[in-house]
């Protein structure tokens, strides 16, 4: 059984990877044929799947990070994820569905920080070769006012 | 023994119920003769028990939700709860006392969001018919400046 | 083995001690020869160890609290810590290294509150006489804009 503590530990490592600027390690949290999206609550309710960011493979996530590095956007802002305990919707030996609340603070190069996004991850975790991975993560932002600068992964 | 992980899982489900607008399921987290209050830290220190919101039965919580639906207030704002890990003050087989920090972001219909409230739940959990329930939850807000629009449960 | 749940419980008690103004109990979370620092991410990257607050013994932490009480600063503001789940970097029977994200809301005497600081604890926990204690806690703030009023412990 995939249990709550394993998901908590996974999410702590996931958030730390982004927040410590180890972005090249971020795609490794996903399966090769993963689905990753950032969207907001109204788009999601209306079934508008495309969202703000869309990827349907780990390779696309790797491309995204490479593009971020190219553009040097990563130097202009940092994030701090504060994640809640997951709500475990269903779980068995090889798979789990969970929902996890997130709050992200953005720290700009000036040193100023602000609450940047809140929302919920809707996740499908799988166990592959003894490793817990995300087959799907949809980051659903609460706010419909989307910052066009949204650059780092949520 | 009621343990820390069980309380974490309970709180994740509780917060998700409110934040996903499944408000009709919210009273089911409480015992029939529960005590629920929202207050702030100064009122609590002075023993002013009434607080901002007061209910002493599950039926009163159900009435409150019905009134919210009637007033359509639920369409005008949503919350996102970010809860800390509970501090387990005491626990045995059938009962536990705990304190859990909360942060609530409010998202208005315009899509704007703001940190709305922070504080601490002071909880008495009981095990009834194999189910973990709140016999008492007092949500003590840190700020004494209370928003008169406070409508959704904390 | 020092496990994740033990660290979660420790941090919940630590944060509650500060946020409930039981500051005299705060030094007891540390070993007698502890190392405690508050700094920010740029100073830390450049190896500027001194930081904003520095102590290298429990006695220095006790002095700090005594000074705070003397100055009555504790009446002018309160904090609310929202802590994430620790990332357990390494652990064995007697020692663990972990990193824990924090968000601190500050509540002023006027009742107004604001997100005051975000960052990460870099911790070294040890087991001494059956008790989990901090041999080292470095609180690394994300923002380089430091509030000179920073008075309470993080």
Describe it.
The structure is a homotrimer of 154-residue chains. By secondary structure, chain A is an alpha+beta fold. The first copy, chain A, contains 3 helices and 7 strands; from the N terminus they run αβαβαβββββ. In chain A, β5 and β6 form a beta hairpin. The first copy, chain A, starts with a helix and ends in a 13-residue tail after the last strand. Chains A and B meet through β5 and β6 of A and α1, β3, β5 and β6 of B.
Topology:
The structure is a homotrimer of 154-residue chains.
Chain A: H1 4-19, E1 30-40, H2 41-45, E2 53-55, H3 58-71, E3 77-83, E4 87-91, E5 95-108, E6 113-128, E7 131-141
Parallel strand pairs in A: 1-7
Antiparallel strand pairs in A: 1-2, 3-5, 4-5, 5-6, 6-7
Q: Which structural category fits the helices and strands of chain A?
A: alpha+beta
**Model regions low in confidence, pLDDT < 50 over at least 5 residues of chain A:** none
Q: What is the distance, rounded to the nearest whole angstrom, between the alpha carbons of the first and last residues of chain A?
A: 27 Å
In terms of DSSP E residues, the strand content of chain A is: 35-45%
H/E element order of chain A = HEHEHEEEEE
Largest interface: A-B, 20 and 25 residues
Oligomer: homotrimer
Radius of gyration of chain A: 15 Å
Helix content of chain A: 10-25%
Let me know the number of strands of chain A. 7
Strand count, sense and barrel status of the largest sheet of chain A are: 7 strands, mixed
Overall morphology of chain A: globular
Report the total helices of chain A: 3
Mean pLDDT of chain A: 90
